Structure formats: structure tokens, C-alpha cells
Amino acid sequence: MERNLTQGVTEYWLRLPIAYKEKLAQIRVWKNLRMATDAQDIWVRGITPNQLVSAEIRSIPFKKIYVQQDNALFLLGGNLPEERLKTSLLWSPIDKALPVEIPNYNFNFFGVNETIDFKLVASNIEHEAKAVLVNLDVLEVYIQNAPAVRLKEIQWTFIQENAFLLGTPILPIPGKSYWQQLNFLIPAGYDFEYPELSNFYHKNLQVTNDEYIVLQSDHSYYKIAKEQFKPLSISSYRRSQ
């Protein structure tokens, strides 16, 4: 009768070729994990059953998952040991073994549509929208019949051939929404790959309280001075035309 190797198991191991080290970035925030390396592979231990079935673990390519039984490691789903227990490895907390790498930038030059080496990634966390980029024609149709009370909390300015609206609640019109973190306006559905770096970028981009930095999912950005915004109304829209 075959035994169930996973019965009673509370810890799993992950093995990944060193060449794919960056794929572990999404799990480096899990404080219970320990990491070590040998000549060719990275080893991660301490994975719980709940973490094992998480999207973060399942999305890591080229990995192998092991179950520890006594002094042997069994490939998940296998009945024969594939490795002996790794007793010679030097283990460290994963967030220490995979420190966030902060590149050196030339922050003295700051232009429109410049790119910096941050990465925005899709996020399942929902944030309240604080701004929206809309087509001017769409905005014009809406404000013709909108009550003044609906517009009074909204500021706006031009961005090329579009209107950038700032304020809540945002208007119920189609457009590209943004949420706010510090003075960054970030596309809805996205966040920094490493949210803890937001203060770093804010400081080193020398963002002032007089401007917003509008980030794009393609890593470009542009700035808008707060003094460019004016209250939204039918009359302010018509004067702008």
C-alpha cells in the first residue's frame, strides 16, 4: 500500500536554477522562508501548505517542489527520494538573501516622458481612483448636462489632446484612472513591483509638493505642476477652447 508522503507535512522545499533567481522576487516578503544556494541551484524551505498553492508559488517557472521525509527529499507526488537532506547549506531569511537592488540613477535630469528603471506590475489590491485621463469630446458631452455640484470637487488641466481630471468622487465617464501614493499618480490595477521603493523614488526624483508625477505602465512618466489645475466647470471648459 502506497503511503501518502504529504500527510502531516507542514513544510515544503523549492528548488530553482540560479539563472532564474529574479523569479523569487514575489515571495521575498514572506518572512517564514529561508534560502540557500549551492553551485547550480537556489533552495527555499519553510513553504507552508497555503503558500504552496498560492499564485506566487505556482507562477514561478522551472521550479521543483520537494516534501521532506526524515533525511530525504521526495519530489512532490513522487514515491522515491530524489535528494538527501541538505545539511551543508548556509540558510538565511529570504528577504536578506534577496535584498532589493537599488540602481544608481542620474536624477539631475528630469524631463517629460523619461523612463526610469522602476517596474509597475499588475495588482489585485483595489485603490480609490483619484484622477482620470479622458477624451475632451467625452468630457464636453458630460459637462453640458452635469449639475454644478457634481463638478465642484474636480480640478482639471490639458494633457496633449485629453483632459486630466483630479478629485473625488471621479466623474462617471470612460477614461484611464489613476490612484495616488505620495505625489505619484499610478494607473489603476498597477503598483510598484516593490512598494517599499516608493519613498526612495519620491525622494531621489526630488518630487516637490508643487507637482504630481504621472506614471505609465510602460515605465514612462511625466510631471504636472499643481498650479496647472483649475476648477472644472462649463465656463472654464469653454474658456479653454
What's the Cα radius of gyration?
25 Å
Instruction: Give the count of helical stretches.
Output: 7
Strand content: 25-35%
Q: From N to C, what is the helix and strand string?
A: EEEHHEEEEHEEEHHEEEEEHEEEH
Low-confidence stretches at least 5 residues in length (pLDDT < 50)? Answer: 1-6, 102-115
Question: Spatial order of the strands in the main sheet?
Answer: 8-17-16-14-13-10-12-11-18
Helix proportion range: 10-25%
**Mean pLDDT across every amino acid position:** 82
Count of domain modules: 2
How would you characterize the largest beta sheet? 9 strands, mixed
Number of strands: 18
C-alpha end-to-end distance: 81 Å
Query: Which structural class do you get from the secondary structure elements?
Result: alpha+beta
Sum up the overall morphology in one term: elongated
Give the assembly state of these chains. single chain
Describe the structure.
This protein folds into two domains: about 90 residues; about 130 residues, no CATH class. The protein is built from seven helices and 18 strands. A nine-stranded mixed sheet has the order 8-17-16-14-13-10-12-11-18.
Summarize the structure.
The chain has 241 residues and is an alpha+beta fold. It has two domains: 12-97; 114-240, no CATH class.
Main attributes of the structure:
nine-stranded mixed sheet; 241 residues; 7 helices; 17% helix; 18 strands; alpha+beta
Strands, helices and their partners?
Blueprint: E1 12-17, E2 34-37, E3 41-47, H1 49-52, H2 55-58, E4 64-69, E5 72-75, E6 81-84, E7 92-93, H3 94-97, E8 114-115, E9 120-122, E10 131-135, H4 136-145, H5 148-151, E11 155-159, E12 162-166, E13 176-181, E14 184-187, E15 190-192, H6 198-204, E16 211-215, E17 220-225, E18 230-231, H7 234-240
Parallel strand pairs: 14-16
Antiparallel strand pairs: 1-3, 1-4, 2-3, 2-7, 4-5, 5-6, 8-17, 9-15, 10-12, 10-13, 11-12, 11-18, 13-14, 16-17
